[in-house]
Design brief:
By secondary structure, the chain is of the alpha+beta class. It has four helices and five strands. It has a single domain (32-136), classed as Dynein light chain 2a, cytoplasmic (Beta-Lactamase). The protein has a five-stranded antiparallel sheet, sandwiched between helices.
């Protein structure tokens, strides 16, 4: 892949994370690689993470591993769409996108299924925008 194409993908994915961060009650939006590295994204301005850097890196790795294990069941159950986790302090939404895992942390009272639909629409719109832009280039 050319450097220019990689930069366009980076920009597109960062734009998607920024748009998700613009939604009400979202604390964090980021794309995690298969190896658990944060590719793009981060916390909304003014949000203090509940965990330190080392704990976050470990958490990203665990989410990446879980995502990779889920693929073992794609033939039986169909492709993974999204998962939700509800905790006392934060709710978590994970969505596979390209070869990454989109990780979104929100306040605990957010309806995660509605949010998943909104984010999937944003992903579809982002992909459509990028596809149309490629046709013009």
């Amino acid at each position: 892949m050319s450097i220019l194409k990689e930069e366009k993908i980076d920009y597109s994915m960062q734009r998607l994370c920024d748009n998700i961060l613009g939604l009400e009650n979202v604390r964090f939006a980021g794309l995690i690689s298969n190896f658990g590295n944060l590719y793009v994204g981060g916390f909304k301005d003014g949000i203090t993470p509940y965990e330190n850097d080392k704990a976050r890196r470990s958490m990203y790795m665990k989410f990446a591993l879980e995502s990779n294990f889920r693929k073992d069941f794609d033939d039986s159950f169909g492709a993974f769409k999204y998962s939700t986790i509800q905790r006392e302090k934060v709710s978590i939404l994970t969505i596979n996108i390209c070869s990454y895992l989109l990780l979104v942390f929100v306040e605990p009272d957010v309806d995660l299924h509605t949010l998943a639909g909104r984010i999937q629409s944003m992903i579809d719109e982002n992909e459509s925008h990028d596809h149309n832009k490629q046709n013009l280039d």
